[in-house]
Hints:
Layout lengths: L3 H17 L7 H4 E5 L4 E3 L7 E2 L2 H4 L10 H11 L8 H7 L8 H12 L2 H8 L10 E5 L17 H10 L13 H4 L10 H13 L5 E5 L7 H12 L2 E9 L6 H16 L3 E9 L5 H7 L5 H14 L5 E4 L10 H23 L11 E4 L16 H17 L11 H16 L4 H22 L3 H4 L4 H36 L1
Parallel strand pairs: 1-4, 4-5, 5-6, 6-7, 7-8, 8-9
Antiparallel strand pairs: 1-2, 2-3
Amino acid sequence: WMSNYEHDRIKEILPQIEAKTSPTFCLAKWHHVTIYLHLGETHSCYHPQPHVIPLDELKDNPSALHNTKQKKLERKMMLEGKKPDGCNYCWNVEAMGCDYISDRKQRTLSIHEGDKSRLDDIINNPWDMNVNPEYIELSFGNSCNFKCGYCHPRYSSRFLDEIKQFGPYTKNYTGRYDVDWFIDKLYESEEDNPYIDAWWKWWPEVSKTLNILRITGGEPTIHGSTYRLLDEINKNPMPNLELNINSNLGANPKLFDRFIEKLKPIIEEKKVKEFKLFTSIDTWDKDKAEYIRNGLDIELFKRNFDKYLTEIKDSKLSLMITFNNLCVTNFDSLLEQILKWREKYNDKDARERGNINQPIPLQRIQMDTPYLKEPPHYDMNILPKDDFTHYMNRHLEFMINFQDDDDNTKFKTLEVEKFRRVVDYFKSAEVDEDYLRKGRSDFYNFFDEHDRRRGTDFIKAFPEYEEFYNSCRQSTTKTQRAIRLEQRRAEMMRRKQNDKVD
C-alpha cells in the first residue's frame, strides 16, 4: 500500500538519484540485508534467492555476512546500469511502464530519505567498499517450537524433525518440504556456528550505524543469542535503533518471563529508539488456530500476549496475519478479538492519564493482512468463489462497521483498505486451470498426510470445508488415475520403439 505522496516523491526524487548513479541503482543492495546465520546465507531483499556466504571471506572481514564478493559485483553492475539476474522481479515490474513502482524504487527512496549522506558515500568510494547497512534482518537459528504448515524445515526445527522421521510430502506437486538440498549446511547448534561467531565480531562496528534490527527465526525467544543481544543493548544503549523481534508467543512461561525481564528496561528506559514485537495469528477459533499453526497453545498465547502488554509500559505489538485459505471462513473471530484487545489496552492507558475522553495517541496493537500465495495449497484462490465469497464480504463489512480513524479501539481506514485489497484480489483473481487442479490436489494430499503425521483431524477443525475437501479428494483421485494412465501409455510407446529398434 503506497500513498499518493509516496508515489509522487518517488517520481520526483528517484531521477535525481539515478542521474548520480544509474537507472538500475538500488540502495537496498548496499544498506538492507537479511542474514540466515544457521544456513550461512544472505540477500538484500526477498526477491533474489539467498546466496552462500563463503567462510573464507569471513576470516579477516566479518562484515562479509553482508558484503560478500558476489553482492559487491552486483553493486558494481548496478552502478554501471546493468541488471543483476536475481533482481528480475523489479525489472519485470518496471518493464510494464514508468507508472509502475517497483520495490527497487520504493526502497531506494526510503533509504535515501533516511540519510542522504549514504548516497555520497557510495559515489565517492570504491565500488567494492564494505558497507555497514542501516537495516538488518537476522536469524540466529531454525530452532522452533511450532511447525506451521505454510512454514518450511529451513526455518523450523520441529518441521525438520518431522521430515527426518517421515520424509517429504511426496504426493504434492509443490510444497514437498524436501531437506536434502540444505541439510548439509545447516548449523543446528548456535554454539558451534562460525557465522554466529562472525556476527559478534562484526557487532561492535555495525551497531554504531545500525538503524533497524529485526530478529526472526525459528523462534527468537528460545535462542540463546537473542538474550545475549538484549544483554548487549542493556549494557550499551542504542538510542537510534529500532529493534523488532518476531515471536510466536509460544515459549513456556518461565522462558517468556525471562524474555520480558531482559526487554523491560530496554523499552521503559528508552535504551532503543523504538521496540516492536511482531507475532502471527490467523484466526481466533481455537481448533482452527491450533491446526493452522501446529504447536500453538492458544491459552499460552493469550498468557504471553497479556504478560507483554501488561508488564511493559507503552509496549507495542503488531499482528502479522498470514491470510490463507484456512482463515477465510472464520477471520472475523480474530477481528472481534483485536477490538477487545484494543479496548482493553488503549482504555487502560487513557485511565492512567486521568482523562478517558482524551484522544489516545498510541496504538499499541497494530495489524497487517498480507495474503499468502505460496505454497498453492494454502492459497485462498483455490477455493470455489461461489461458496466462499460471502465469508470475505462478511469480514470486510465487519471492519467497515467498526472503522474510525479518531478512535484507537477501532479499525483505521488504512487497515480496512488493505483488507479490501485482499477481498478484491480473491474476487477478481483469474486462476489458471492447471494451477487450480494442482493446488486442489495438493490441498487434499497435504492435509491428509498432515493428519496422519501429526494426529490432527482436518474435518473436525474445519467442518465447513468438508464439501471442498471431498471434492479435492475426488479430483486428486482422477488426477492420479490420469497420471498413471499417461505413464502406462508412455511406457507402452517406449516399449514399441524399443521393439522396432530390435
